[in-house]
Amino acid sequence: MNLSRSRKKVGIGIPCLLIGGTEIQTVHLVNALIQEGYGLTVVCYFEYDPWIVNKLEDLGAEVVLLKWTRGIPPFRFINSLSKELKKYAFDIFHVQYVAPGALPILAARLAKIKKVLATVHQPKTKSHGRFAGLILKTAARFCDSFLAVSKSTEKSWFGSVQLMDSNFHAEKIPAHCTVYNTLDTDWMDQQLSSRPDQPISTVRPFRIGTVSRLNYVKGIDILIRAFQLMDEKKKLQAELVIYGEGEEEARLKKMVADFGLKNQVHFKGKLNPSEVIYQTAQLDLVVVPSRFEAFGLFAAEAMYLGKPVIASESFGLLEVIQQGETGMLFPVEQVEKLAQAMECLLENPDLRISLGQKGKISVKEKFGFHSFQQNIAKLYRLL
Question: Where does the record place the Glycosyltransferase subfamily 4-like N-terminal domain (predicted)?
Answer without folding.
Answer: 19-155
